[in-house]
Structures are given as C-alpha cells and as structure tokens.
Amino acid sequence: MFNFLILSLCCILVSSEKVRYDNFTLYNVQPATERHLQFIKSLHKNWEILDFWSIPSTIMDHVSVVSPPQSRKEFEQELAKRGINYDIVLENIQQAFDEQTQTRSKRNIDNGLYWTNYQTIDEIYEWFEYLARNYSNVVSLIHAGRNITGVKISRQSGKRAFIIDGGQVGADWLSPTVVTYIINQLATGDDPEARAASEEFDWHIFPILNPDGHQFSQDSVRLWMKNRRPTSGTTFGVDLAKNWNSQWGVSGGSYNPADSNYIGLGPFSEPETRSVSRYIETIGSNLAGLLSFRAFGQRLLIPFAHSSDPLYNYQDMVTIGRRAMGSLAVKYDTQYLVGTSKNVHDGSTGSIADWAKHRFNPPIVATYQLRDRTWGYTLPVNQVLPSCEETFDSLMAILREAKFINIL
Sheet containing 139-143: which strands, arranged edge to edge? Predict the structure, then answer.
C-alpha cells in the first residue's frame, strides 16, 4: 500500500509564492472491470496525495489522475499488480503549465483579444469596456455580484434570452476563452448566422462565474478548483459547479471542506451562485435557453444528472445535441458524447443547467464539457482556437436544429 505524504495546503494559502508541479505526472487510467473501477474509486476516496481531475464512474471511462514524483513508482506498481492499464500523458505537468503562459504577449486591447492562447480576467474585463464603448448600440455591461461581470448583446430589447456562462472552476482556463470567442462572433463578427442570432435573441454572457478562484489559479495554485471564501478552519472554497439548487448533494460532491469538490453547507451557500441565480431570475419566463461551459471531457450533458430517465424535453435535446455535435466535428473531427451526466459522465448533481431547467424549463439547456479527454487542464495553447471555432459552430447548429424541430 502507498506510504502517503499528505500535501498541506496551509502553507500554500498563506504564501505568496506560486505553487509549482515539477515532475508531477499526469496519467490516463483505464478501468476495464468492475474490480478495477472499485479500486480506482478507493484511491479517489482515501488517498489524498493523488489528484483526480475526473471522478471514476464507469468501466472503460478513462480517469485523469496526477501523482507527485514521490508516489509515482508505487502508484504504477499498484495499478500493474491489478492489471489496470494506464497511459502516461505527461511526465512533468509544470512544463505544460509554463507553456500555457509563456506564449502570452502584451496586447493592445483596442485590437481585441487573442484566441490563440488563454486569457486573464483583467484582459477580458478590459475588453468588455472596449466593446461597450465601441459597440454601444449592441453591447452593454452587466453585473451579477462582486466582480462577476458580463455583457448583454442585444440588437432589439425585449426578446427571448439566452444565458451563457463559463469559468465556474478556477483551474478551467479554456471555457472563459471559448465564451469570449462566442461574444466576439455575436457582437462584432460577420458570420450571418451569428448576426441573425443576435437579432433574434438577447444574450446575457458571463465568461467567469468564479473570478476569485480564476485569479488564484492564475497567480498562485494552477490547479485550484473552488472559490476563495473561507469555510472551516484553514480551508477555503466551495465547488461552485455543484452548489446550485437542483438535487444538491445527491451525487458527485464532497461534504469535506478540504476536498476540491466540496459542495458547501447547502444549495446557494456561496455569494457567486446566489447572485447569478438572482440575475437569471430577472429574466424568468423569458429565458429561451442556458448553456454552461467548462473543461473538460468532450461531452454535451442534458438535464438531469441524477436520473437516466428522459425527463422534460430530453428527447428533443438529445436530437438537437447529436446533430449539433456532428456540426462541431466537421472542422477538426472532435467527437462528443451526448446524454445525461448519469449516462455519459459522472452523475454529479447541483449544476446551474439542472437548476435552470427545473426552475424555468426553457427549451434549450445543456452543459458543454470542452476539449479534451487526454490533456485535461494541461491542454496546449494550439488547441485553444480550434476549440473556440468548433464550439461556436455547434452553438449555431443548436439554434438551427432547435428551430427545425420547432422548439425555438
């Protein structure tokens, strides 16, 4: 059995020094039997020195796991002893994290954002100011609580509305960048479908719902997941992606404040989820759809995570989703699974999409898990723009297919 050295976050939280992950190894573990799966679940539950980027849930579903250098040999031996296959994706994830930031260059915001690398919250919010100044007939700034800033794109007010969100997980740098690409296309692009979409619907878009966690991931702990509110003793943060009032705490989360998937004391325990939910309440029955974006896994999740049953207009959304993911695959052959989280992912409950579907029942609700299934949070920057492009194509396809079957 492993001789675990429990990594203490206490020093991290009080130090201004940036945490490094030198020689931490990223594995893609492949459980092929129920016995394999149960062993990997026991690692996830009990062995804290391993960092699971995905929750072990089903046989043959790859699990992304990071091991520190001192545990690598024993981890590999334990897997080999049980005949569990694995691939080493990266032997040193710090090198990948360095490459994610070293390509950044000082930009003139008047020339817009770049979608060839990851963006910071300061760059995004500064760009929002630029859009509001230069496209004031289309773009206005919106706010949902402290430092949660977005844009409303509207060419004629009073229409049905879409909500788009990203950045609920601090370590997820991809979804905010994908969401700003969507904003750019809707507000300034020359794509005729995008123009039609911004004329037919109002778009309320928040790229980063977890600004404190996102900034902490940029500045201090690259793999920080939660928000930054003090919770218990020396622990900080709640997993916002599981803090919404829909089957809260049923599956996929932790009640331990020290865990990265800690769900909080109750639904809407966090200021971020409360303030954003209040904002969505102001749209109410006028809500035509909500699309939530996060990394990673290449899945389109349809409500509801707690059930495999086809609830509400599930069949319509599966039809739309599969056709839209076909459109997504055209450019780069990126393949997505479509279904409920319980059927095609880990069944984690308490999501914004499930809450919005239950609360308002708009026809279009889904959660994108963006690229990819291998690199996880180390996704190279050369995959950022392709991810933006294919995701935007699929968004236009969702609108197109929804109209085709007469639910929009």
Answer: 139-143, 149-153, 202-206, 161-165, 287-295, 364-370, 299-301, 337-339
User: Going by C-beta distance under 8 Å and a sequence separation of 6 or more, which residues neighbour residue 102?
Assistant: none
CA-to-CA separations, 89 to 78, 348, 379, in angstroms, rounded: 18, 25, 11
Helix boundaries (H) for 170-313: 174-188, 192-200, 211-219, 271-283
pLDDT at res. 214: 98
**Residues in CB range of 340: below 8 A, 6 or more apart:** 301, 302, 303, 304, 305, 307, 308, 314
Cα 299-303-305 angle, rounded to 5 deg: 80
Q: How far apart are CA 173 and CA 217, in angstroms?
A: 9
Q: What angle, rounded to 10 degrees, do the helices at 384-404 and 314-332 form?
A: 140
Instruction: Pull the structure tokens for residue 44.
Output: 């996830």
Tell me the three state secondary structure of residue 87: strand
d(CA 309, CA 311): 6
Average pLDDT score over residue span 117-126: 95
Determine contact, residues 66/222, Cβ cutoff 8 Å. no
pLDDT score at 8: 36
**Residue 297 in tokens:** 């896994």
87-97 pLDDT, tens digit per residue, is 999 999 999 99
For 284-305, what is the mean pLDDT?
Answer: 96
Largest CA distance in the chain: 64
Q: Is the pLDDT of residue 7 over 70?
A: no
Instruction: Please work out, in degrees rounded to the nearest 5, the angle formed at the alpha carbon of residue 23 by the alpha carbons of 21 and 25.
Output: 90
Tell me what the mean pLDDT of segment 259-274 comes to: 97
